[in-house]
Structures are given as C-alpha cells and as structure tokens.
Design goal:
Blueprint (H helix, E strand, L loop, with lengths): L2 H13 L6
Length: 21
C-alpha cells in the first residue's frame, strides 16, 4: 500500500462518503 493508493482511497471516499451510523 503506497501513498498514491492511500490518496486514491481518500478520493474515492470523498466521492462516495460512507454514511455515519
């Protein structure tokens, strides 16, 4: 898992934020 992967994951979460239950 590199920094790029982490950044991509963060971008994905920003695009599809998980609902806070």
């Amino acid at each position: 898992v590199g920094k790029y992967d982490k950044k991509a994951l963060r971008d994905q979460f920003k695009d599809h934020p998980l609902p806070t239950s």
